[in-house]
Design a protein that fits this description.
The complex is a heterodimer of chains A (114) and B (116). With 114 residues, chain A is an all-beta fold. Chain A contains no helices and eleven strands. Classes of the chains: A mainly beta (114), B mainly beta (116).
Chain lengths: 114, 116
Protein backbone atom coordinates (compact mmCIF):
# COMPACT_ATOMS: atom_id res chain seq x y z
CA UNK A 1 0.00 0.00 0.00
CA UNK A 2 1.26 3.44 -0.92
CA UNK A 3 2.33 5.73 1.90
CA UNK A 4 2.39 9.25 0.59
CA UNK A 5 1.10 12.16 2.59
CA UNK A 6 0.13 15.70 1.82
CA UNK A 7 -0.59 18.56 4.18
CA UNK A 8 -2.67 20.53 4.47
CA UNK A 9 -5.62 18.82 2.80
CA UNK A 10 -7.48 22.11 2.43
CA UNK A 11 -6.14 25.65 2.51
CA UNK A 12 -7.88 28.99 2.04
CA UNK A 13 -5.60 32.02 2.00
CA UNK A 14 -5.52 35.61 0.84
CA UNK A 15 -3.73 36.99 -2.17
CA UNK A 16 -0.06 37.71 -1.71
CA UNK A 17 0.61 35.15 0.99
CA UNK A 18 3.53 32.78 0.81
CA UNK A 19 2.55 29.13 1.18
CA UNK A 20 4.25 25.76 1.23
CA UNK A 21 2.43 22.56 0.39
CA UNK A 22 4.03 19.55 2.04
CA UNK A 23 4.49 16.13 0.50
CA UNK A 24 6.19 13.17 2.14
CA UNK A 25 6.53 9.53 1.24
CA UNK A 26 7.83 6.63 3.31
CA UNK A 27 8.50 4.21 0.46
CA UNK A 28 12.04 5.36 -0.31
CA UNK A 29 11.04 6.30 -3.86
CA UNK A 30 13.57 8.32 -5.81
CA UNK A 31 11.13 10.00 -8.17
CA UNK A 32 8.54 12.48 -7.00
CA UNK A 33 6.05 14.65 -8.86
CA UNK A 34 3.68 17.57 -8.42
CA UNK A 35 0.53 17.85 -10.51
CA UNK A 36 -1.96 20.68 -10.71
CA UNK A 37 -5.50 19.62 -11.41
CA UNK A 38 -7.85 22.22 -12.80
CA UNK A 39 -11.63 22.18 -12.20
CA UNK A 40 -12.06 20.49 -15.57
CA UNK A 41 -10.24 17.47 -14.11
CA UNK A 42 -7.19 17.61 -16.37
CA UNK A 43 -3.86 16.83 -14.67
CA UNK A 44 -0.88 19.01 -15.44
CA UNK A 45 2.65 18.03 -14.41
CA UNK A 46 4.30 21.13 -12.92
CA UNK A 47 7.45 19.74 -11.24
CA UNK A 48 9.29 16.49 -10.80
CA UNK A 49 12.45 15.18 -9.22
CA UNK A 50 14.69 12.20 -9.93
CA UNK A 51 16.23 12.28 -6.47
CA UNK A 52 17.91 14.47 -3.87
CA UNK A 53 19.03 17.84 -5.25
CA UNK A 54 17.32 17.12 -8.59
CA UNK A 55 14.29 19.15 -9.73
CA UNK A 56 12.78 19.64 -13.16
CA UNK A 57 9.96 21.73 -14.53
CA UNK A 58 7.02 19.88 -15.95
CA UNK A 59 4.79 20.39 -18.94
CA UNK A 60 2.82 23.28 -17.46
CA UNK A 61 4.58 26.48 -16.58
CA UNK A 62 4.09 27.25 -12.92
CA UNK A 63 5.05 30.11 -10.65
CA UNK A 64 5.71 27.64 -7.87
CA UNK A 65 9.09 26.28 -6.84
CA UNK A 66 10.13 22.98 -5.32
CA UNK A 67 13.07 21.57 -3.41
CA UNK A 68 14.36 18.06 -2.74
CA UNK A 69 16.76 18.05 0.15
CA UNK A 70 15.65 14.69 1.50
CA UNK A 71 14.48 11.65 -0.42
CA UNK A 72 11.18 11.47 1.42
CA UNK A 73 10.24 15.14 1.25
CA UNK A 74 9.22 17.25 -1.78
CA UNK A 75 7.61 20.55 -0.75
CA UNK A 76 6.07 23.01 -3.18
CA UNK A 77 6.18 26.74 -2.47
CA UNK A 78 4.24 29.67 -3.82
CA UNK A 79 5.98 32.93 -2.94
CA UNK A 80 2.94 35.11 -3.55
CA UNK A 81 -0.36 33.34 -4.01
CA UNK A 82 -2.91 34.64 -6.50
CA UNK A 83 -6.50 33.61 -7.29
CA UNK A 84 -5.23 31.95 -10.47
CA UNK A 85 -3.39 29.46 -8.23
CA UNK A 86 -6.67 28.13 -6.92
CA UNK A 87 -6.56 24.44 -7.76
CA UNK A 88 -6.07 20.93 -6.47
CA UNK A 89 -2.40 19.95 -6.09
CA UNK A 90 -1.46 16.28 -6.19
CA UNK A 91 1.87 14.82 -5.18
CA UNK A 92 3.08 11.43 -6.44
CA UNK A 93 6.13 9.21 -6.22
CA UNK A 94 7.55 6.23 -8.08
CA UNK A 95 10.36 3.75 -7.74
CA UNK A 96 13.21 4.59 -10.12
CA UNK A 97 14.17 0.96 -10.50
CA UNK A 98 10.76 0.25 -11.96
CA UNK A 99 10.98 0.53 -15.71
CA UNK A 100 7.35 1.37 -16.15
CA UNK A 101 7.04 4.29 -13.72
CA UNK A 102 3.90 3.36 -11.80
CA UNK A 103 3.11 6.40 -9.71
CA UNK A 104 1.54 6.44 -6.26
CA UNK A 105 -0.50 9.48 -5.37
CA UNK A 106 -1.17 11.42 -2.20
CA UNK A 107 -4.65 12.62 -1.20
CA UNK A 108 -4.10 16.10 -2.62
CA UNK A 109 -4.25 19.66 -1.29
CA UNK A 110 -7.18 21.78 -2.34
CA UNK A 111 -5.98 25.38 -2.42
CA UNK A 112 -8.27 28.39 -2.62
CA UNK A 113 -6.76 31.86 -2.97
CA UNK A 114 -9.15 34.71 -2.27
CA UNK B 1 5.07 13.13 -29.16
CA UNK B 2 2.81 11.16 -26.88
CA UNK B 3 -0.86 11.69 -26.43
CA UNK B 4 -3.74 10.04 -24.61
CA UNK B 5 -7.30 10.80 -25.62
CA UNK B 6 -10.35 10.08 -23.50
CA UNK B 7 -13.13 11.34 -25.70
CA UNK B 8 -15.88 10.82 -23.12
CA UNK B 9 -15.89 13.71 -20.68
CA UNK B 10 -18.78 12.45 -18.62
CA UNK B 11 -20.87 9.29 -18.59
CA UNK B 12 -24.05 8.74 -16.57
CA UNK B 13 -25.49 5.29 -15.99
CA UNK B 14 -27.94 3.64 -13.69
CA UNK B 15 -26.72 1.06 -11.23
CA UNK B 16 -26.21 -2.43 -12.67
CA UNK B 17 -25.62 -1.15 -16.18
CA UNK B 18 -22.37 -2.05 -17.92
CA UNK B 19 -20.21 0.87 -18.99
CA UNK B 20 -17.10 1.17 -21.14
CA UNK B 21 -14.60 4.00 -20.84
CA UNK B 22 -12.57 4.62 -23.98
CA UNK B 23 -8.87 5.39 -24.18
CA UNK B 24 -6.90 5.99 -27.37
CA UNK B 25 -3.18 6.65 -27.26
CA UNK B 26 -0.46 7.86 -29.60
CA UNK B 27 3.24 7.07 -29.36
CA UNK B 28 6.06 6.37 -31.77
CA UNK B 29 7.64 3.94 -29.34
CA UNK B 30 7.17 0.21 -29.75
CA UNK B 31 7.65 -0.44 -26.05
CA UNK B 32 5.39 1.42 -23.68
CA UNK B 33 3.12 0.99 -20.69
CA UNK B 34 -0.52 1.90 -20.24
CA UNK B 35 -2.32 2.59 -16.99
CA UNK B 36 -5.76 3.25 -15.61
CA UNK B 37 -6.25 5.28 -12.43
CA UNK B 38 -9.43 6.00 -10.48
CA UNK B 39 -10.00 9.31 -8.67
CA UNK B 40 -12.91 9.06 -6.21
CA UNK B 41 -14.44 12.20 -4.69
CA UNK B 42 -11.89 12.03 -1.87
CA UNK B 43 -9.26 13.21 -4.35
CA UNK B 44 -6.38 10.77 -4.49
CA UNK B 45 -5.63 8.80 -7.64
CA UNK B 46 -5.80 5.05 -7.14
CA UNK B 47 -3.89 2.73 -9.43
CA UNK B 48 -6.07 0.14 -11.17
CA UNK B 49 -3.97 -1.59 -13.81
CA UNK B 50 -0.74 -1.50 -15.78
CA UNK B 51 -0.26 -3.08 -19.21
CA UNK B 52 2.89 -3.33 -21.32
CA UNK B 53 2.79 -3.05 -25.08
CA UNK B 54 3.77 -6.67 -25.62
CA UNK B 55 0.92 -8.09 -23.61
CA UNK B 56 -2.34 -7.82 -25.51
CA UNK B 57 -4.22 -10.26 -23.37
CA UNK B 58 -7.40 -8.85 -21.98
CA UNK B 59 -7.57 -8.75 -18.23
CA UNK B 60 -10.46 -9.22 -15.85
CA UNK B 61 -10.50 -8.32 -12.19
CA UNK B 62 -13.87 -8.82 -10.60
CA UNK B 63 -16.30 -6.44 -12.28
CA UNK B 64 -13.48 -4.64 -14.10
CA UNK B 65 -12.07 -5.68 -17.45
CA UNK B 66 -9.64 -4.12 -19.87
CA UNK B 67 -9.40 -4.53 -23.63
CA UNK B 68 -6.02 -3.66 -25.11
CA UNK B 69 -5.83 -3.50 -28.91
CA UNK B 70 -2.58 -2.33 -30.47
CA UNK B 71 -4.12 -2.32 -33.93
CA UNK B 72 -6.41 0.52 -32.93
CA UNK B 73 -4.14 1.99 -30.23
CA UNK B 74 -6.88 1.58 -27.67
CA UNK B 75 -6.99 0.47 -24.06
CA UNK B 76 -10.63 0.47 -23.05
CA UNK B 77 -11.99 -0.16 -19.57
CA UNK B 78 -15.32 -1.84 -18.88
CA UNK B 79 -17.19 -1.97 -15.58
CA UNK B 80 -19.80 -4.69 -15.46
CA UNK B 81 -22.88 -4.25 -13.30
CA UNK B 82 -21.85 -0.78 -12.18
CA UNK B 83 -22.36 0.34 -8.59
CA UNK B 84 -22.72 3.75 -6.99
CA UNK B 85 -19.24 3.34 -5.49
CA UNK B 86 -17.84 3.27 -9.01
CA UNK B 87 -18.68 6.96 -9.36
CA UNK B 88 -15.34 8.67 -9.89
CA UNK B 89 -13.09 10.23 -12.48
CA UNK B 90 -11.07 7.68 -14.41
CA UNK B 91 -7.76 8.49 -16.06
CA UNK B 92 -5.89 6.59 -18.72
CA UNK B 93 -2.12 7.20 -18.88
CA UNK B 94 0.93 6.27 -20.97
CA UNK B 95 4.59 5.82 -20.09
CA UNK B 96 7.14 5.46 -22.89
CA UNK B 97 10.84 5.87 -23.75
CA UNK B 98 9.99 9.18 -25.43
CA UNK B 99 9.86 10.67 -21.95
CA UNK B 100 12.55 8.38 -20.60
CA UNK B 101 9.73 6.57 -18.84
CA UNK B 102 10.13 9.35 -16.29
CA UNK B 103 6.71 10.90 -16.62
CA UNK B 104 3.19 9.77 -17.32
CA UNK B 105 1.09 11.28 -20.08
CA UNK B 106 -2.49 11.43 -18.81
CA UNK B 107 -5.73 11.71 -20.68
CA UNK B 108 -8.17 14.41 -19.60
CA UNK B 109 -10.24 11.94 -17.62
CA UNK B 110 -13.78 10.59 -17.82
CA UNK B 111 -16.21 11.33 -15.03
CA UNK B 112 -18.49 8.38 -14.36
CA UNK B 113 -21.71 8.99 -12.47
CA UNK B 114 -23.61 5.91 -11.33
CA UNK B 115 -27.03 6.63 -9.93
CA UNK B 116 -29.09 4.24 -7.79
Amino acid sequence: EADIYQTPRYLVIGTGKKITLECSQTMGHDKMYWYQQDPGMELHLIHYSYGVNSTEKGDLSSESTVSRIRTEHFPLTLESARPSHTSQYLCASSESREFYNEQFFGPGTRLTVL
Amino acid sequence: AQKVTQAQTEISVVEKEDVTLDCVYETRDTTYYLFWYKQPPSGELVFLIRRNSFDEQNEISGRYSWNFQKSTSSFNFTITASQVVDSAVYFCALSAPNSGYSTLTFGKGTMLLVSP
